[in-house]
Design a protein that fits this description.
Rossmann fold; globular; homodimer; two-stranded antiparallel ribbon; 464 residues
Chain lengths: 464, 464
């Protein structure tokens, strides 16, 4: 999920993220040593998730201490590939927010299971991304989901820089515990504010590649936050062109906020407020989806539960499920009895995230990545108004990309899955037709087609 | 349905429709006399449609001769209101095209039945518009569906003017046969090219109101063709803003077709052709709907047939159903054994429709209607790229309307049904969220909410 990246009417700070930092390695070295990693891995094996149907692949869940004493302690959930072999790649997934749990990705998007409306049992998602690769879901930063600090300083240290460093250190340490994945092809993936997390982590991997061998091959980001200045205009543009706001509101926004002398002033604020009011009753993460009108759990699972018809109350079922004691026990989560429940996003922490970080442009990092041979794919569910395709297209235009293969439809199961364009340096943009912000929730089959094409370094299917 | 209103690259003719004609009445007078209308009505009663579930209301079907000898002979299908009383209004429906059958409206959109995938049996649409009013579906002009001429001149006489005159005469004669509906409130409704048919028929009724008492109260038109100059730009604008064509294609269209010196020339044509190619694999009448990949009839009806999930192969089931001998017999259709099958649109006739008529602006007629106290509502399914909301908004802007109630969401079953704005003279615009060109096919409940609000002269529901 992707909470509004800025307060309406607040001045934007466009100071850019420092693209060239290098993290301090001593901390990293000392914290790896002295623990029997194989033992930890075996302890992390999840025998069965409560209420799950039988499956043939292995699942793990547990904590990795970034710093052994104070933390942070990052919770992870890991699913091995269905057809795992010694070389099947590793994909690391982040849900963004900032401060939203990646267990949403696991249980609402592309993981092997979804939660039934009873909040207690699971059903199989046949379009899980572990059909193709091993997938590692990381709850990051501390304070998100089951991840935590040992002291109250969690909220003081948040931000893009700290998050990227901790994600990097998590990955290095996790690879000690799961050493058979060392040297595998690694892909960093995520959506929404992970448009910051993923490129920043990828950059750290590049900058430290002499010290740790992480074979970074690609970055995949969906409906990503990349450059807030372009995004805000694209959001209102999207709302207008999808008939959610009136021509008058659109004219006013342009006159008062974009072309006016008083941009950011009271009149601009009012025009934005009227837009917020008009659109407050629909789900801006999928403008055509129903909203959840009754989130009460059912005593039995709803009939005809299908992964193809995303139930808008699913986040409520997931919240209920992850707060069950037997589920937490089975997942090796919340072992320290946190004084709060699992929630999909930590809104308090989100509110404290600095505007400097939010407004930083990711364009320089994307350029560094593609220049270094890292495959970068950006995708947009076309029903999302939170980080819409219009915003992303403005960012791409700003990058002044060299087109290698022009815009064309791509296909999945005989239907147009979306449109795609390919640029120099293995940079690809693709839309996913009929999907909102959480693409695999709405279009699981199309999302899996996109994902496998990305991993296999194949163009998206070009024919029926 | 709404076939492309002009050939790509052809020059537009903007000569306007003559808004002040008056039809010749002698023909009308002579043709009414001398027939026992009550008898004809009884013969038109449909006892049961093959394969239909039981219902409590009456259905009629049959022919009305506009001219007793040569024709045209217009086929109609009429469903009485479920809660009919002596004053329940009469709604006349047209599907547009030009040259598409209104039986599509009856069996794919807002009639009481839909056709199962077996092409033989029917299921109930609980959101039928006869829940509120009596609905008369007219196949017009001659050559469309079951309507015909007695000679081969049908194709020579087509056009907006002739169609409006014949529709008017049909209505006068039909009211002789169904005389209990004389003096009732009458509403003219339709979609797509019926954006021409409906205002033109309404205007004729106004101009002839001293001669025949037809209590015209309102006009309701969905995704209507109203002003082709504005519409074409709005179509490409819609495709671009819904990520179906690339920024480059949109730039080219603007440069070569709108702002170029050579508008309408070869380069403009090429830019439009590239757009047509890129969008040829999706259904432009609902850009997010699946296309019909397998139109083979099933031996048994598909399981879980629900009116809420429109099956894209439904037009094929309807075509099979309406060509069954027992169905035609029960409906009193095709009594003269036409040498061709029922089809949803007559594309040959559509091709012969003059560009003068297609390109005529309906704005003067709409202004005449609202100025005469006729309630006019225009609605747009927001997933339609054929006559998209962007096009309709350009037409509304051109009308320079005086806003009486500003843009706001309206509600149906607890969800946002769309957005609406009200103007001076009882003129209302409304979008229907999540609907394509055939609004009641995609959103039957929202369409019924809109329809009943229109008929009852109530604002669209403003709260959850």
């Amino acid at each position: 999920m992707y909470k509004s990246k800025r307060d309406i009417g607040s001045a934007s700070d466009t100071s850019h993220f420092n693209a060239n930092r290098r993290i301090s390695m001593p901390l990293l070295r000392t914290s790896i040593s002295g623990v029997n990693q194989q033992e930890l891995k075996e302890k992390d094996l999840i025998k069965n998730l409560p209420g799950q149907p039988p499956v043939s692949f292995k699942q793990y869940g547990g904590y990795v201490a970034i710093n052994e004493s104070a933390g942070p302690f990052f919770y992870y959930y890991f699913v091995e590939a269905i057809r795992a072999n010694n070389s099947s790649p590793l994909v690391v997934w982040f849900n963004g927010g900032p401060s939203c749990s990646s267990l949403q990705g696991a249980f609402l998007e592309h993981g092997p299971f979804r939660v039934h409306s009873d909040g207690k049992t699971l059903y199989r998602n046949p379009y899980s991304w572990n059909d193709e690769t091993n997938v590692l879901y990381i709850e990051s930063p501390a304070g998100v989901g089951f991840s935590y600090m040992n002291n109250s300083s969690a909220l003081e240290n948040i931000g893009d820089k700290k998050t990227a460093e901790n994600n990097y250190m998590f990955l290095v340490k996790w690879l000690e515990r799961f050493s058979e994945y060392k040297g595998r092809d690694v892909y960093i993936a995520g959506q929404s504010y992970a448009g910051h997390y993923c490129p920043q982590l990828a950059q750290l991997i590049l900058h430290n590649k002499n010290q740790t061998l992480i074979n970074l091959r690609g970055v995949l980001i969906g409906n990503p936050g990349l450059d807030s200045n372009d995004e805000i205009y694209g959001e209102y543009e999207y709302l207008f062109n999808h008939a959610l706001i009136s021509p008058k509101q659109w004219d006013n926004y342009n006159k008062l906020c974009i072309n006016g002398e008083d941009s950011g002033g009271t009149e601009c604020f009012k025009s934005q407020w009227s837009i917020t009011e008009q659109t407050s009753h629909i789900n801006l993460y999928n403008i055509y989806a129903p909203i959840c009108l009754n989130s009460t759990l059912t005593s039995k699972p709803k009939e005809y539960t299908t992964v193809k018809n995303f139930d808008p109350c699913s986040p409520e079922y997931l919240t209920a499920y992850l707060n069950l004691a037997n589920v937490q026990k089975a997942m090796h989560a919340n072992t320290t009895k946190l004084p709060y429940a699992w929630t999909k996003c930590n809104y308090e922490q989100n509110d404290l995230w600095s505007n400097n970080d939010r407004d930083a442009s990711m364009i320089p990092i994307l350029e560094e990545l593609t220049g270094s041979g890292v495959r970068v794919w950006v995708y947009s569910g076309d029903m999302d108004a939170a980080v819409p395709h219009t915003s992303t297209m403005h960012v791409l235009r700003k990058m002044n990309l060299t087109i290698e293969k022009i815009w064309r439809p791509w296909f999945s199961e005989g239907e147009v899955g979306g449109y795609t364009e390919e640029y120099k340096n293995k940079f690809t943009y693709a839309t996913v037709r009929g999907a909102g912000h959480m693409v695999p929730s709405d279009q699981p089959i199309r999302a899996l087609t996109l994902f496998t094409s990305f991993i296999r370094n194949m163009p998206l299917p070009g024919t029926l």
